[in-house]
């Protein structure tokens, strides 16, 4: 269990991490999602004890990362954004070195190295110099280093950045398999990536937690913002008299439609409401034929952009609570 409380990082006047508080439960995959500069790396660096916070605390299994650094760090494996690899060592030399730093008992080292190199598919390159490896293999070696010692929590900063699609799929599968025995926290600025592998998504924006929910919860938020675009034969005036009497409509706008004598209404519904049937009967009663009706759903990308662009609306606790209440199906293809 990780408890982050009121975590703050200031660089001069710049507030990179702004009073973050959250908890990470064991056995799940968490994703930090946010645009460049949102504070993901800074947060991870503080959680792993790489840098000191300006204010606030991080406790790993009850150990304070500042005050009980050794005990806390023993619970964590970390792959920073730029993996700390020694370019002039071979893969095996480097991993042996990392195993010694992590104080892994000598009798366990060889077995762990063999298992972890197999897991990360680095066995074939074990005798190669790290500087001669491709970006994808370097990333796997960094990952192997993070897994060494089988820490309870594995923290991965942008683990798939710069990899080709095949490597990305392999790393994604590896991360999933890690979650069987470890808690995994990863960061990414790619929504589909986080959505594809994570049980919980934390959206960071300007150093603040903009949302924290399951992928389904965030998709539910998307459904709550679904809109109908309806082309109707008739006048705007007549339509304005009908729509307010249909339950489940949050807001609507009306403009002229391209079809002659028709108007276009864009109707946003309340979360979980489907007004199509009521709308059909209400319009039929008023002899206003529907020419076309389409559901226009906000994409998760739209929601992500809204959340990360308009900090004022999302720092409102009522909004955050509303978001976590909105659970629904997950329709994103998650093309990592
Ligand atoms: N050592 C530093 N000195 C000054 N400012 C810094 C330092 N490190 C990070 N920052 C600033 O803090 C903010 C958060 O940076 P951080 O690297 O944590 O963001 P990020 O979400 O990880 O972004 P990216 O996806 O680009 O890595 C940014 O505005 C960045 O410029």
From TrEMBL:
Keyword Lyase: no
Keyword Mitochondrion: no
Domain of life of the organism encoding this protein: Bacteria
PROSITE patterns: ABC_TRANSPORTER_2 (PS50893)
Domain ABC transporter: 2-231
Chain intervals for the UniProt region annotation (Disordered): 310-336
Name the UniProt record assigns to this protein: ABC transporter ATP-binding protein
Basic and acidic residues: bias regions: 319-330
Molecular function as annotated in GO: ATP binding
């Amino acid at each position: 269990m990780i408890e982050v409380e009121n975590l703050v990082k200031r660089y001069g006047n710049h507030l990179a991490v702004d009073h973050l508080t959250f908890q990470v439960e064991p056995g799940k995959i968490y994703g930090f999602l946010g645009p460049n500069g949102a504070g993901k790396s800074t947060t991870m660096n503080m959680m792993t004890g790489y840098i000191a916070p300006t204010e606030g605390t991080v406790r790993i299994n009850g150990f304070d990362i500042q005050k009980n650094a050794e005990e806390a760090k023993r619970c964590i494996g970390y792959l920073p954004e730029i993996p700390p690899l020694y370019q002039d060592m071979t893969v095996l030399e480097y991993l042996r070195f990392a195993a010694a730093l992590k104080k892994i008992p000598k009798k366990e080292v060889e077995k762990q190295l063999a298992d972890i190199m197999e897991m990360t598919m680095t066995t074939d390159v074990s005798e190669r110099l790290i500087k001669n490896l491709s970006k994808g293999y370097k990333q796997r070696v960094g990952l192997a280093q993070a897994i060494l010692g089988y820490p309870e929590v594995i923290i991965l900063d942008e683990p798939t950045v710069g990899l080709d699609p095949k490597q990305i799929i392999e790393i994604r599968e590896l991360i999933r398999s890690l979650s069987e025995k470890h808690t995994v926290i990863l960061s990414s600025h790619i929504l589909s990536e986080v959505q594809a592998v994570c049980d919980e998504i934390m959206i960071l924006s300007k150093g603040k937690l903009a949302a924290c929910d399951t992928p389904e919860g965030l998709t539910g938020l998307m459904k709550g913002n679904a809109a109908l675009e309806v082309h109707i034969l008739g006048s705007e005036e007549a339509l304005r008299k009908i729509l307010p009497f249909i339950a489940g409509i949050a807001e609507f706008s009306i403009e002229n439609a391209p079809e002659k004598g028709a108007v276009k209404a864009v109707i946003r519904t309340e979360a979980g409401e489907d007004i199509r049937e009521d709308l059909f009967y209400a319009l039929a009663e008023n002899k206003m034929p529907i020419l076309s009706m389409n559901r226009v759903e906000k994409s998760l990308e739209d929601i992500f952009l809204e959340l990360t662009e308009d900090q004022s609306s999302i720092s409102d606790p009522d909004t955050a609570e509303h978001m976590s209440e909105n659970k629904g199906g997950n329709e994103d293809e998650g093309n990592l």
